[in-house]
Design goal:
128 residues; mainly beta; 4-stranded mixed sheet; 3-stranded antiparallel sheet; 2 helices; 6% helix
Length: 128
């Protein structure tokens, strides 16, 4: 999966302040098909199925899904991914976050690139 950043981080760089950007997956929707606040509490089919690289060549961040994540991809319908940093807050009373382009964006839409490699890993490319 890959995502492109929409602009510079807000506050400090969340990759250095909040740790790894992790991925949960659900075959089908995490609640509703459209993004909703409840999606962040909805149960995932598999948690921590990948961790994004901290480097973003050309503004794109990528992650390789593990076997548990690959097995939860819906080949005929919706698959939703939830992204979150390993540390939710650093308690400094300042916002630290990264904006990503959504699937509704005119450019920089998230992408799912499937590469078959010997380990059978799936690579997700996300535009930030």
């Amino acid at each position: 999966m890959s995502r492109k950043h929409a602009n510079a981080p807000v506050g400090g760089n969340p990759f250095t302040i909040l740790g790894n950007l992790l991925v949960d997956i659900r075959k089908g929707a995490l609640g509703k098909t459209a993004l909703a606040a409840a999606d962040f509490q909805a149960p995932a089919a598999a948690k921590k199925v990948g961790s994004f690289s901290k480097m973003a060549p050309g503004g794109w961040y990528s992650v390789k899904l593990n076997a548990a994540g690959i097995s939860k991809i819906n080949r005929t319908g919706i698959t939703q991914f939830r992204l979150y940093f390993s540390k939710d807050d650093n308690n400094n009373l300042k916002a630290n976050y990264m904006k990503f382009f959504s699937g509704n964006a005119a450019t920089g839409k998230p992408g799912l690139i499937i590469r078959l490699v010997p380990e059978y890993l799936l690579i997700l490319r996300i535009c930030l």
